[in-house]
Amino acid sequence: MSRALDQLGRAVADHQDDAGRELDVDRGLNRFRTEVDRRRLNRRSPWAFVAAAVALVVGWVGLAWPARPLEVSLVQGADAERWIEGADEARFSDGSVVVAEAKSRWRVAERTARGATVQLERGALTARVVHREDTSWQVDAGPFAIRVTGTAFTTSWDPARQVFGLTMHEGTVVLSGPGVGGQLVVTAPEHVQIQLDRVATTAPRPTTIQRDAPAPPAAPSATSRAMPSAAPRPAPSAPPVDAWREHARGRRYAEALAELRALGAAALTSASPADLLLIAQTARLGGDGALAQQALVALREHHPASVEARTAQFLEGRMHFDQGRHAAAVTALSGYLQAAPDGAFAGEAQLLLILALHHAGRSEEARSRARLYLQHHPTGPQADRLRSILEP
Amino acid sequence: MTARPAHLRLVPPPSAPSELPAVDTRARETNEAELVAGLVARDPSVCDRVYRLYQAAVWRMLRRVLGDDPELPDLHHEVFVQALQSAHRFRGDSKLETWLIAIAINCARAKLRSRARRRWLTFMAPEDLPEAPAPTTEAAAQARAVYTIVGKLPAEERIAFTLKFVEGMTLDELAAAMGCSTGTVKRRLRRARERFDRMAQRHPALKAYTSVEDQP
Fold first, then answer.
1. A-contacting residues of B 57-86, CB under 8 Å?
2. What is the 8-class DSSP label of residue B2?
3. Least CA distance to A40: which residue of chain B?
């Protein structure tokens, strides 16, 4: 019986040998030689390696340019990469300094060898960035981004009143954000204040942009802890925008939702990715599916590159599934798995997708995916449920 | 011209041997030990020699398992890179070629599994892939049909099936190459065969094969 298969196999082998794809031996050999050479170089004596490392370090020191991401330390000792509530001063290894005022919420979101990204969720901060060749610094104040190559300025963002402020002390920055119309070059001693329309939702527009040149306040020195007196400050009468967050964390969803409704659409337009996720979760658990959906959509639209945006896609899929909208769940979960195949919710998304396909009447696809899933996870969660899908 | 000594006589020149001389195992082992030592030392001339000696066998084995796959050159390179990395672990228990083929099969297995995972995660069904040009001969159509079907088998079954029926390996060779027992190989072959026969019924290019199989 297997003679026919042997014959078929031989015919296939003959076809491969006669007409199959051929190896470009010279090219393959050159490629292999390159690999051999690379590994030989890597195996040279440790002293050669040490000498090379020393030369490299000397080179870097000579240029006074750090090879690793900038180091940062806070005067009060907190972790600069977590959200910081209140005043503090961040000192960077390139000599740059960021001083945040009281009642600010901010963090150092990213550090590279060439600079850092500082996020200001509310309040005001003053930055003095040391200019070097190819410096790349950015300060995100609410929905505004300030790109810096070496300068000193004070910026503020009041999410409750939707007021952004930028006061230049030295140099030039490039500002972008809602209502700016592309990019705006702001040079010392200019001052920019932008008041966003509070009723705007997905595309906030400025109701006023003031651009003038006040007398420049004294910029902070790289070592001084003094706050510049001329920095714009959030209005003292700002409503307690943190209240909803406190309620949400305390699982008082009704109260949190009441606070959020009082804030109106501004709650979504000015929120950070983490806050939008928290709003979505709060709304979902508080029974306001529409707000949850709005928060997730805002998260994906306003912060499309963030990790939270991917999570939002998964949560949307789960919400659709919970509410019986299986076709929409398939779309959202497929999108999540494409964007984050190794994401934190990948396993759960695969399972939900199979179930959503099944309920949406796409049984063949559901069975095919269930079979694949069970091959890889024969004893995984929901394995029995998936096996029941496989049964005719 | 001097006269031919009496004790010498003319004989016809030797013809080409009908059989190749038996391999001198000790010479081979010495030779292979030198090659392995050269690989470990990253000796360029030895690395070149190893590549030239075994590139064809490795290529053939990868092509048997994967068919005319666009990633064959990359995988072929990967096999020799892995050989370079793990040469220090080669103990000479098998021939160098067998060892390299086992590496090739491991690389093919890893590639098949990663594709299966990717297909699972990215929802790219084989039928969503761009159409390849239509085969121009019956043999080409058969080959394509065979690899379309084995593309749906689990990696281990695909490897066992293609090496047995396309490459013509024996069970023992398969077991050595796949790093498992002959019993396991037989079990994989049986399953692969059942699935293959079932799917082959739907391929017109394999009609000749399935009609023979249908005969009592």
1. 59-60, 63-64, 67-68, 72-73, 76-77, 80-81, 84
2. P
3. B42
